[in-house]
Each structure stands twice: as C-alpha cells, then as structure tokens.
Specification:
heterodimer, A: 290 residues, mainly alpha, two-stranded antiparallel ribbon, 11 helices, globular, B: 337 residues, 15 helices, disordered N terminus
Chain lengths: 290, 337
C-alpha cells in the first residue's frame, strides 16, 4: 500500500510534465493543424532558461514560473511569425519537418553552449523534504508539481470554455470557415495560440528543472513519449491530452517499479492497443482521425 | 521566396511532383545512368572508401524511404527501426554464424521486413501527420528494446567487431577499398529493385493512392493492403542498406535505431528531391560528405548545420536538388523523352 502510493505520486508528477506539454501540443495542433516536433526542445529550453536565469540574475524558482513562460511565449510568437507561418498553406508535414530541423538546431546550440553535463538547479526550501500522509511519506515536490499542473490545466480549460477569447479560439479551430463568415478574424488568433502552446511546454520545463537533470537532450525522449500521449488521448482532443498525459506518467512509474526493463516499452504497447481498438484515440473525434 | 509546387493538389500527402514520365528509351536517362555508375565505381579512388560506401548505403536508404514518401505519399519517421534493426541482425548473424556477409545482410533485411509487417499494419490505419508520429513511436520502442536487451545487443556498447566474411577473400575482408566493390553491387541491386517497384503496375497503384486514395478504393483496390506492402518492401531495402552499413563499419550501435537516424534519411530524401529516386543519391552524397567534412574539421554541433539545412530546404527549396534540376531540364527535354 505504502509503495503503491509512492509510485502513484511519482507517476502523477511525471505525468504532470506530459500533461502540460501535451496540452500545449494539442492546442497548437487544434488551432494550426501543426504537430510541433520542437515541443520537446521547448520543454528543454524552458528548463535551461530557468537554470540560466537563476545563475545569471539570481532569479528564483517562483518568479521563474511566471517569467520563463512569458519569455517562451514571445519566442513562440517569433517562431510562428518568422517560420511556421510561411508553411501554413501547405501540407502540415512540412511544418513537422521544419520543427524537426529546429529541434536539431536548438539541441546542439544548447549542447555547444552549456555542454552535455547537467546544469545545477536548487529546489526551493519549502518544496524539499517529505510530507507525511497517513503514515506514508511522499516527496513534497512531487505533490506540488501535480497540484500545480492540475490547476494550470483547469485554468486553461476555463479560459477555453468560459471566456469570449477562448470560445473564439475553439470556434476558429473547429469551424474556421463558419467562424470567419460570422465576422471573426480567424488568422489573428493563430500566432498567440502558438505562443501559448510553446509557453506551456516551457512551463513544464521550469517545473522539471528542480526535479530532472537539465541537459540539452532532456527533451529528446520526452517529445517521442509526448507523441504517444497525444496518439493515446486523441490528437484533436484537449481533455484527451491531459488525461493521457497523467495516464502515461502512471504507466511509466509503475513500469519502472515492477518491470524496469519494460517501463518505456509499455507506453508504446499501450499506444498500439489504442490504435488497434480506437484509432482516433481515447477522446478523439472521428474527423480528427482521418 | 518559395518555389511554387509544380502541380498543387488537394490530396493528403505532401505536395509532390507529378510522377515522372517513364521515358525509358530517352538517351538522357541512359547517359545519366552511365555517368552515375562511373561515378560510383570511381568514388573510392577519390574519397576514403568507407565514406564512399556510406554514401551508397544512405542513398539506398533514402530511395527506400522515397518509395513511401514520394510514391505512396506516406512520411515514415521511423525508418531507423529497419535500418538499425537490420544492422543488429546482420551483425549478430555475421558474428555467430560465420556466413559470407551478403547472407548476413539478407538475414538483416528479412528481419526488417518481418518487423515491418506489424508496424506497417498498425501505422497505415492513420495517414498524414499521424502516420509520421506513429512510425516514429514504434521505432523508438525498438530503440528501447535494443537498449534493454543487453545480453543480445550489447546495450550502450552495441555490437562490435562484426566480421566481413567473404569466402576467404582476404583483400575484401580486410581492405575497405576492395570491400567497397563487393558491397556496391548489392546496393545497386537494391536500387534496381526500388526502380522496378516504382515503375511496375504495383508502383502505379501506389502513385494513384498517393494522389487520390478514395478513388483507388472505389476502383476496388485494397488501399491499406497496398500501403502495407509498400511499407514492407521499403523496410526490406532500408534493411539491406543498414546491413551493409553495419558490416562496412564493423559495428552496430544504438545510434542506428535512434530517431535522429530516421530524421537524417528524411533530410536526405527531401534535400535530394521527394519522388525522384536520383534525389536520394544526390542528397546522400551531400549530407554524408558534409558530415564527414564537419567531423574532420573538429566542429562540434552537427545538428546546428543539419538543422539549419533542414529549415532552409523546407522553407525555400521543397522540390529538392534533383526535383529542381528536373524542373529546369524538363522545360528543355520534356519533348524528347
């Protein structure tokens, strides 16, 4: 019982990174039809930026949770305007390839600048240590990551469903022509939405900074797992991305505990099963599954 | 800035050039083939023979990928599974069975086709961007398997000192210069098979699937079956290339299975020109020579260069080198072919 709770906390913490980043991936896909291969690189850049800001300006973890996503938003907007935008009218595969090229570029730039060994990052005092819950000791940081990411996912969900801007974005995503016909400038929202998705990946990176080794390659496997997450959840579905993110985190944690050799393989087997039984993903719509 | 596609179509695949006119009797084509063969034969006199064989192997790999990308309209981002899977099996067979290396390569290619059946069967259920992601994920699964199964694959160390047994011909087994001339015919045979596939009635169906899957289905073809068959054939040729690569270098490493290898072959194909078999050859020569030059000049951060090349090609040069050449030449020679 004790162990199961610990693995659950571990899995939910790992799942938090997947859920936040997959949410960004799903939002970008929804609004632009683009699968952003560079999402893992953006997660890595978020963590590296947090480490560099701490080192250079003494900017701590709490302000970094705000500052880094803002910086990543600006970076995302620049990427969209300068590069992604020019391929929007073509087959989405071209943007997939473009962002793949960007991944190689960013990873090796960071590697060249900061080397291959990890950058140090101090966990804030209040989040280190363990919390005793009914006789089980759980790391505070894991619980914090889980709660924080659930709150962020909820806020994004409310933004999309309860605000005027969110409704416009969703309408532009699902029925672009009709929305345009109703007098909404659909194209205007594409750039900020891309930036927003990148900011979410960056936020996941900041959260991972005190928890994982900060290296240029930290996003390289992450992004592949992320693809498995959105295939499992359903590429068009925002809820699916979040739920599948936590699910994959749990599968990974329990896999590592009980069958360490198969921990990562299990995720792909899960993906294969989903493709076999529900090709559009657990929460996907049929039209997105074309 | 960007080059307008030759024939914009609304199909789901990338905007590809129209299928080339056959023109088998065109003198230009024969001349090209002759020049290409001469270059291939002369190559190890000018550059380090293992690098020359790298070019040949990557060219075959890119051509194998292009059967899917250029002629079937499917972007596989997981072809490292077949190149690397075959590299390992070729290495294991060569190490343990002591057979001549072509047989080991054949075993590797058969293994690649074998694993391509389930991967293809699952992946063709989706098309477009989904297909790319699913193939990528399955290839990564194989990477994790190879990483974990240390007793067989050697884990991080990979397989080392793979022998080049060849009927006791000592010069071939020790000198990479002579080995090149024994391995080259196998690579060329693979390219010929690719050419035959693409120009066969089967290949015509693939092109039709690329351009209009719904209509091909309406005509009574089993689109999914054709896609899986193309996938398996492509995997087999990629396996031949990967096996040759492993024997040539004497090792098989995890790098061969990693997604950057899948990405590299996509880069070679796109740089050379999608839907042009010659493009794979040109792209492979450029990328392999560039990497070799960067490595020998001590530049660290290969990805900075290849990543930038990728971005520039995708943004401004989507037809690739061969595609552009053909478009330019097409205006002049199209009447004759």
């Amino acid at each position: 019982m004790n162990a199961i709770l610990q693995y659950t906390a571990q899995g939910l913490a790992a799942g938090s990174f997947y859920a936040l980043a997959a949410l960004g991936l799903a939002i970008i896909f929804g609004a632009l039809g683009v699968v952003n291969f560079a999402h893992g690189a953006m997660y890595m850049l978020g963590a590296v930026t947090a480490a560099v800001l701490l080192d250079a300006f003494g900017l701590g973890f709490w302000p970094a949770l705000i500052v880094v996503p803002v910086l990543m938003f600006v970076f995302g907007v620049m990427l969209e305007r300068l590069l992604v935008h020019h391929l929007m009218r073509l087959d989405p595969l071209y943007n997939f390839l473009l962002t793949f090229g960007l991944t190689l570029l960013f990873v090796d730039l960071v590697k060249r600048r900061y080397g291959v060994s990890g950058l140090p990052y101090q966990r804030p005092e209040i989040l280190s240590g363990q919390l005793e819950l009914g006789g089980v000791r759980l790391p505070v940081y894991q619980l914090f990551v889980f709660v924080f990411s659930v709150v962020v996912c909820l806020v994004v969900w409310l933004l999309l469903t309860r605000t005027r801007v969110g409704m416009i974005v969703r309408a532009s995503t699902e029925r672009p022509e009709l929305t345009q016909a109703l007098g909404v400038n659909v194209g205007r929202w594409v750039t900020p939405v891309f930036g927003f998705g990148i900011a979410l990946a960056g936020l996941a990176g900041v959260l991972a900074a005190p928890f994982r080794a900060i290296t240029a390659d930290m996003g390289s496997n992450f992004v592949i797992i992320l693809f498995a997450v959105v295939v499992i959840g359903g590429l068009g579905s925002i809820l699916g991305a979040v739920v599948a993110g936590f699910l994959v985190g749990l599968v990974e944690a329990f896999g590592q505990a009980y069958a360490p050799a198969f921990a990562q393989i299990v995720i792909f087997i899960l993906m294969a099963l989903v493709i076999l039984t529900r090709p559009s993903g657990l929460f996907g719509r049929e039209e997105a599954a074309r | 800035m960007s080059i307008a596609p030759t024939k914009p179509d609304e199909s789901t695949g990338p905007q590809l050039p129209a299928a080339p006119a056959l023109g088998r009797r065109s003198p230009l084509r024969w001349a090209l083939l002759g020049v290409g063969l001469l270059l291939a034969l002369a190559l190890p006199w000018f550059i380090y023979p293992p690098v020359a064989l790298d070019i040949a192997a990557w060219a075959l790999f890119a051509i194998a990928l292009d059967i899917l990308l250029g002629y079937t309209g499917l972007l596989s981002f997981g072809h490292a599974a077949f190149w690397g899977g075959s590299a390992y099996v070729t290495g294991l067979v060569a190490l343990n069975a002591g057979v001549p290396f072509p047989l080991a390569v054949l075993a590797g290619a058969l293994f690649a086709m074998l694993i391509a059946v389930p991967i293809g069967y699952l992946s063709v259920r989706r098309s477009g961007i989904y297909f790319a992601m699913v193939t990528l994920a399955f290839a990564q699964m194989l990477y994790f398997v190879a990483n974990q199964w240390r007793s067989v694959t050697g884990g991080e160390n990979g397989l080392q000192s793979i022998p080049r047994s060849f009927f006791g011909a000592e010069l071939v087994e020790t000198e990479s210069f002579y080995f090149y001339y024994v391995a080259l015919p196998i690579v060329l045979a693979g390219m010929w098979v690719a050419w035959r596939i693409v120009h066969s009635p089967f290949g015509r169906v693939l092109v039709a699937i690329r351009d209009n899957p719904a209509r091909v289905r309406a005509l009574g073809y089993d689109v999914e079956k054709y896609k899986v068959m193309a996938f398996v054939m492509s995997a087999g040729l990629a396996g031949v290339a990967g096996g040759i690569f492993a024997v040539s270098h004497g090792f098989a490493s995890l790098q061969e299975l990693y997604w950057t290898t899948s990405g590299k072959v996509v880069l070679i194909t796109v740089l050379g020109g999608i839907g042009t078999l010659w493009g794979g050859v040109v792209g492979a020569a450029l990328v392999v020579l560039l990497e070799d030059w960067l490595a020998s000049s001590g530049f660290e951060g290969l990805g900075i260069v290849t990543g930038t090349v990728f971005v520039v090609v995708v943004l401004a040069f989507r037809k690739g080198i061969w595609g552009t050449l053909r478009a330019v030449a097409g205006g002049r020679f199209s009447r004759r072919s």
